C-alpha cells in the first residue's frame, strides 16, 4: 500500500507498507476433533427402536439444534454435549398437545421396569429428541421431581444454557441403566 502524506512543512512524503493478510482465528477444537474416535451417524429423532450402535455420535437436537450424544464400545450413552441449549418453541415448532415433539420415547432396555422412566437426557422442552441416543432409563422420582427435573427447570427459567455437558456412568458394561 502506498500512501502520500503532506507534512507540516508542505513537503509530500511517500510511505509504502506491505500489509500481511489478515488471518482469522479458528476454534481450537473443530467438529472433527470433537468426534475423534467416533463415527457420526444420523438417526431419526422419533426412532423408538431403543437400539444403539457402539462408538458413534448422533445429533439429538430437534430441528437446527446441534446436541451430540456419544456411545462407548458397549452402546451405552456416556456423554451428551451442546454448545447452546435452545428452548422448545411451542408456537413455531410441531409439538403435540402434551408439549412433546414425538408421541412416545425409545424403548431402551431397562425402561420396561415400573420404577424407571423413559427419561430424556435433554428434555423435549429443551429441544431434545426421543430416540435411543437421548433416552435412558431414569429412576422415576429423579426424573420427575429430583435433580434431573431441577436441572431442566433451571435451564428453562434461564432461557437456555451454553456449554452443556452430561457425563453418564454405568455400574457395568452389560446394562443400559445408568
- Give helix % range: 10-25%
Distance between the termini: 63 Å
Oligomer kind = single chain
Strand content: 25-35%
**Widest sheet: strand order?**
3-4-5-6-9
Largest sheet: 5 strands, mixed
Describe this structure in words.
This protein is of the alpha+beta class and 178 residues long. The protein has helices spanning 31-34, 140-145, 147-158, and strands spanning 2-6, 12-16, 39-41, 56-59, 67-71, 77-85, 116-120, 135-139, 161-167. It has one domain (27-167). It is globular. The N and C termini lie far apart (63 Å).
Q: TL;DR?
A:
The chain is an alpha+beta fold and 178 residues long. It has helices at 31-34, 140-145, 147-158, and strands at 2-6, 12-16, 39-41, 56-59, 67-71, 77-85, 116-120, 135-139, 161-167.
Topology:
Elements: E1 2-6, E2 12-16, H1 31-34, E3 39-41, E4 56-59, E5 67-71, E6 77-85, E7 116-120, E8 135-139, H2 140-145, H3 147-158, E9 161-167
Parallel strand pairs: 3-4
Antiparallel strand pairs: 1-2, 4-5, 5-6, 6-9, 7-8
